[in-house]
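note to self: dont lose this again. the chain is below, predicted strucutre after it. 46 aa total, dont forget to put it in the shared folder this time
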Amino acid sequence: MIKKIAVLVTDHFEDSEYTEPVQAFMEKGFEVTTIEREARQERNYH
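---
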């Protein structure tokens, strides 16, 4: 079973506020989709 989670990224955040949780989710086997509000883009990480 694939576990999925989306992470919303907006302005004014520290890099570690994004990278550390994403790394933890990936280590637990989640497929992470990053949604960037400013750029209106989605990125998928497996």
